[in-house]
Design goal:
Strand order of the largest sheet: 1-2
Radius of gyration: 21 Å
Largest sheet: 2 strands, antiparallel
Oligomer: single chain
Strand content: 5-15%
Number of strands: 2
Number of helices: 3
């Protein structure tokens, strides 16, 4: 079965890019090579999943400290 190919204009519409350069950058991050650039649905899904994982890691790392520590101040 043939896979659906997405080109620069399709990526511009999908991610609401105003510039073709931005769409090309996204496509290269997805793993697109060659001329003309194209990606498959699987490549897009893998790229989006990777972005979601990075966001989840960032959110778990950002935790508020239990108490405020001011550098250079003597405690006690």
């Amino acid at each position: 079965m043939l896979k659906t190919l997405y080109f620069v204009d399709d990526i511009m519409k999908r991610y609401r890019c105003k510039s073709k350069d931005t769409a090309r950058r996204y496509m290269r991050q997805m793993g697109a090579l060659g001329s003309p650039l194209f990606v498959t649905e699987e490549m897009i899904n893998a790229w989006e999943e990777g972005k979601r994982r990075k966001e989840a890691v960032r959110k778990t790392r950002l935790r508020a400290p239990k108490e405020m520590i001011i550098p250079g101040r003597k405690v006690g």
